Model the fold of this input.
Amino acid sequence: MPASARPVDAPTLEYYLAASARSPIAVRLVLGHLLRSLRKAAGIDAEAAGRSIRASEAKISRMERALVACKMVDVMDLLTLYGVHDVPTRAGFEEMVRVAREPGWWHRFDGVLPDWAGKLIGLQEAASVIRTYEVQLVPGLLQTPAYTEAVVRQAYPLASPEEVEARLDLRRTRQLVLARDEAPHLWAVLDEAVLRRPMGGEQVMRDQLRHLMEMAQLDHVTVQIAPFNRPGCIAGGFPITHLRFDLPALPDVVYLEQLQDAEYLDKPESTQHYRQVLDSLAQAALSPRDSLELLADFLD
Done:
């Protein structure tokens, strides 16, 4: 059922909370979407909504886009403005606000995790499908510990042993998303350069390739290789991550990582464009079966 067709009532809020319980960030996104839907249904513009909570139009925009954690008093005042007086429904919103303000498990890694990267982890926890295109490195969710350590030591050459271990622990914990019940489907397209870059040395790379082969044979993991000799296997030379959710209130999200920042896109015209790019790459790349054969060739 489309999000617009789903009523905002107590059972609906319980459904959203249950479906996104692993990720406070997902709950925050759902909460923002529902507040925006209620405001528009009430025919109230963002400026008037901002005045009702002693704030600005910009704050309403930040709340609705989940750029800030909503305060309980603000949400309750907005519900009153939007004509939501049903006690069970308001109680459901209270619970959503409480959950949305809880720290995710990744917050214990604040010392090594940039603020902009935490959102990606929360989205991956809630996603049903994670599609990624990598041009230089094996995707983090598919890395071996030794490969991750090589990446960390190259990216952070002055890191202390404690920091290196913390980053390895973070990566190991993130990878548990693929081992849980109802794990997301990971669909990764890797440029051939990923296989030819001997990160960590020959033995580390051979172990990594074997691990890729093992993971690629799981029902919920798809790996394709985009070889040098195939036309259409170029997408601008930068990695792309596209996340899709079963929650009808959550739009697709595209994650574009840069050197010291990241961009998150959720407008349909943008996410659809990147989805088409990934579709084209998947069509041009080797099939999953042929990709496994190529990985085996690299190990011969």
Notes: The first strand starts at residue 129 and ends at 134. DSSP finds 13 helices and six strands in the chain.
